[in-house]
């Protein structure tokens, strides 16, 4: 497999030999200085569309770039063959990882269906116990307020575009956008849970302050509705976690 740390260190050393800063190299290649920083810290590879420009700016060739070292005439051919083998292995490993992800997803869905069936059996088939539109609206409202106040709404929307949409941007640009959107999704996960907690607390206060004094018979159902807000908050956070994971892989 390609050694990203070695490649990054090589890019950094050659850049310094050329007397270039990260910003100057980024301008020559047409990327941001953050993208150059990612390469040099071993967090990613340059996009294939700019590898030639990067090599030209650094005075190296692509084989040397992917090897992470200078190559002389004697070792050039052998390194080229090794790089081809490493690239094939990377492709095969990616396909294997993809299969494992799909199997895990299918298994999770199957277990979820079994769990829902068990809930229906225990609850007499009444899934309506878990539905309460006002509670869900309250949690979503609090989540959106927190995201808006934190300036993360744009990044939150961009996250869905990156994961589910198509883009013609370079890998470096996608990685940079994914890094910003990942924070927005992480922020949204916390906001969803806090929204659920706050809405539940408000529900409990209402129940004990009003319902408790009026009618004991409806105390249980009202407490159950109050807990639903917390459930919705956790579920929203869980739904955002796969998007969080996809964004993390992108950068």
Low-confidence segments, given as residue ranges, are none
Gap from first CA to last CA: 18 Å
**Class per helix and strand makeup:** mainly alpha
- Total tally of structural domains: 2
- Order of secondary-structure elements: HHHHHHHHHH
Give helix % range. over 70%
Shape: elongated
Compute the gyration radius: what is it?
A: 26 Å
Largest sheet: none
* Strand segment count: 0
Task: Average the pLDDT over all residues and give the rounded result.
Answer: 80
Strand content: under 5%
Count of helical regions: 10
Transmembrane segments: 102-121, 127-146, 191-211, 223-243
Protein name: Helix-turn-helix transcriptional regulator
Keywords: DNA-binding, Membrane, Transmembrane, Transmembrane helix
InterPro entries: Cro/C1-type_HTH, Lambda_DNA-bd_dom_sf
Commentary on this structure:
With 251 residues, the chain is mainly alpha-helical. 79% of the residues lie in helices and 0% in strands. The chain has helices at residues 4-17, 22-29, 33-40, 51-58, 62-67, 73-122, 133-149, 153-164, 171-214, 219-250. α2 packs across α3 and α7 (133-149) packs across α9. The radius of gyration is 26 Å and the shape is elongated. 24% of the residues are buried. The mean pLDDT is 80. The chain crosses the membrane at residues 102-121, 127-146, 191-211, 223-243.
Supply database-style keywords.
2 domains, 251 residues, 79% helix, 0% strand
Brief summary of the model shown:
The protein is mainly α and 251 residues long. The protein has helices spanning 4-17, 22-29, 33-40, 51-58, 62-67, 73-122, 133-149, 153-164, 171-214, 219-250.
């Amino acid at each position: 497999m390609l050694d990203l740390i070695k490649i990054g260190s090589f890019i950094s050393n050659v850049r310094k030999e050329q007397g270039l800063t990260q910003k100057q190299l980024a301008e020559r290649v047409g990327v941001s200085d953050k993208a150059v920083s990612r390469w040099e810290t071993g967090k990613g590879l340059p996009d294939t569309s700019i590898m030639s420009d990067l090599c030209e700016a650094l005075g190296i060739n692509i084989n040397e770039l992917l090897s992470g070292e200078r190559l002389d005439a004697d070792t050039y051919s052998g390194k080229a063959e090794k790089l081809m083998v490493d690239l094939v292995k990377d492709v095969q490993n990616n396909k294997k990882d993809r299969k494992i992800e799909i199997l895990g997803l299918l298994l999770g869905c199957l277990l979820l269906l079994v769990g829902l069936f068990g809930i229906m059996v225990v609850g007499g088939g009444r899934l309506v116990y878990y539905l309460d539109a006002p509670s869900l609206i309250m949690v979503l409202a609090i989540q959106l307020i927190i995201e808006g106040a934190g300036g993360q709404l744009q990044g939150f929307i961009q996250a869905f575009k990156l994961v589910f949409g198509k883009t013609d941007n370079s890998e470096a640009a996608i990685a940079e956008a994914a890094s910003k959107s990942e924070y927005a999704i992480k922020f949204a996960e916390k906001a969803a849970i806090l929204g659920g907690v706050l809405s539940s607390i408000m529900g409990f206060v209402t129940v004990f302050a009003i319902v408790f004094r009026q009618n004991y018979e409806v105390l249980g159902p009202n407490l159950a509705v109050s807990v639903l807000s917390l459930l919705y908050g956790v579920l929203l956070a869980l739904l955002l976690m796969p998007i969080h994971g996809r964004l993390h892989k992108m950068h």
